[in-house]
Structures are given as C-alpha cells and as structure tokens.
Here is the input.
Amino acid sequence: MPDLTLYSPDISCEHCIATINDAVSTVPGARFLHGDHAGKRFTVSVESGAVLDKVTTAVSEQGYPLGEAAVAVPTPEPENAGWTPNYRVTRTDLGADVNYDCPCSCESGASFDRSATEQELSGCCCGRQLVVGMNAEIRLKSLIDTSNAYRIDTQEITMPWGQMMQAALAIPTDVERDTNG
Here is the structure.
C-alpha cells in the first residue's frame, strides 16, 4: 500500500507525535514515517488494510482517535516574543550540565564537556535544540535545519568555574505558539 497521511484532531505538540510513533511501532507491518503536530497529521506506511485498522486502534488507545483536523492558520509572533528559558548550571566531572524546565513538561538541557573542542547539540521532544559554549549561537545555526522556522534565544551563563558561556536555544516557532498561546 502507499504511504497514508492520517489526521487526529487531538494532536497538539511533538510529544503527541512521539506517542503516536510509539503506538505505530507496536503494529507489525506498519511503519511511522513522520508527523506534523501543527497540521494535526502523521504519515505511515502499512502493508495492508488490516494493518491500517490495527494502527487506527493503537493510536486511538493512546488518546489520538482519527478524524478531521481543522487547522487554524498560525499567527506570526514578533521576533523577540515568547517564552525564555531559565537555566540551571550544575558542575559535573567533565564540566557542567545546563538544564531548563521546558514548556512541553520536560526537563531538558545540555552537557558541557570541558575537554571537547565542539559541544554536542541537545534536543527536547518538542523540537527545541540547545548548544552551550563559546559562540554557541553560531554553532547552533550551523547545526540546525534552516528550512524550519526557529526563534533563537541566546543568553550568557556563568559556568561553575566562573567562565561566561553562551547558551543558544533554537525554538521552533510553531512549537512556541502551541506552548504560549
């Protein structure tokens, strides 16, 4: 069978998409391809109509019954509007952990390794992506998919050893609207 795009009016965030992905993965003969929480839709590949029925049951049992998804046209927000993270910096053996409470209900963050030349990109289930270090904003912009719309929040933070570093967080604009509005 071809790939199918399914709709659920109860999808509201990337966490919903992750839950649907997990539900689809339990169905033999079905494969989750991608999801779009703003469009309240996800795409699956299924081997047969019977498998599609099982996918429908699996996602419905997780709270995402299929149906029509009326999608509101998002209103663009001003460049500097929206939620701003409040970072907590904790010393570790390798450097520091930089965490924040994400509006999606996760505690997210990044680990800063003092021995690494370039710091790793860390992400949250809702699509926010964080880099900590010198010139973090520049590094973040080089690592993220620029075809998506992000607002970049950059803050100076003090590391446990007294050095100032940047924390640069890419916030997908469609996620920000969902968590702020």
Summary: Residues 71-80 have pLDDT under 50 and may be disordered. Residues 108 and 119 are 16 Å apart (CA to CA).
